[in-house]
Amino acid sequence: MIKFCPKCGNLLKPEKNSNKLVCKVCGYFEFSDTKISLAITTSKQKKSKEIMIDEGEKDHRMPTAEVPCPKCGNELAYWWLVQTRRADEPPTTFYRCTKCGHTWRDYR
Ligand SMILES: [Zn+2]
Ligand SMILES: [Zn+2]
Known about the structure:
The protein is built from 2 helices and 7 strands, in the order βββααββββ. The protein is of the alpha+beta class. The strands form 2 sheets. A 4-stranded antiparallel β-sheet has the order 4-5-6-7, with no helix packed on it. Strands 1-2-3 form a 3-stranded antiparallel β-sheet, with no helix packed on it. The longest helix has 19 residues, at 43-61.
């Protein structure tokens, strides 16, 4: 999260080994959000933070293919491969509709 100094408007930088945000220009500082510092220091919080990032950014990283959605008919879907059972079997292609979010697997 980016915060700016309310005094001079410069970027506040996080100080090492503390949860302080410091302005290098005028010396102003404040304590960063407690939730953020918890997320960095405790493993439990860190885990939930990772999941949050995963959920939020997954769609943007995934490639898309022109596959019709069986639910709403939209013709663009995200796809990814999942190695299902054994390594000697081909991986299964999964699709997720970009419009309604419906997820299905490719049966071949
Ligand atoms: Zn400042
Ligand atoms: Zn759909």
